[in-house]
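Reopening: DNA starvation/stationary phase protection protein Dps still failing for me.
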Amino acid sequence: MASKKMKIPTTIDLGDQTRTAMVGLLQANLADGIDLVYQLKQAHWTVRGPNFIGFHELLDQLHEQVEDKVDLTAERIAVLGGQAEGTVDVSAQTSRLPKYPLDAVKIEDHVAAVTKSLAAYAENVRKAIDEASEAGDEGTADLFTEISRAADRARWFVEAHKVAA
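Support: Ran it again with your exact input. Result attached.
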């Protein structure tokens, strides 16, 4: 990953050290979000089975929701004077999410894989809430709180497709 040095002039009232730390934190979560966006599309494109259309459409909706959070994350990086590194290449190199099983086809396989990725994403975001708060950047902490709520809701929607034991 490239330097987290501040590249965009800003008059925001956070110190350079805080801004640099927050840009790094946001960048890590940006990579996770971009990875998740494409994991959701992978599932959307390849899922097959009973209740196909409902799950297929859910995946598309979740893709759009995560993509919105990715955009907010990248914009927060810019607000803090950083340069978002949002290419698929950077995301592939730095994402902390589990690798998506490319052989998944059945709905239950996609449910398990998407749930696992959403859980990792939400866990990373919750840690980021604490880090941003401890650094004194409540704006970034609030953004991560918004993302956390959306990730938890998305996981709930996906988990609702699990077959009851």
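The radius of gyration is 17 Å. If you still see a failure, please send the error message rather than a screenshot.
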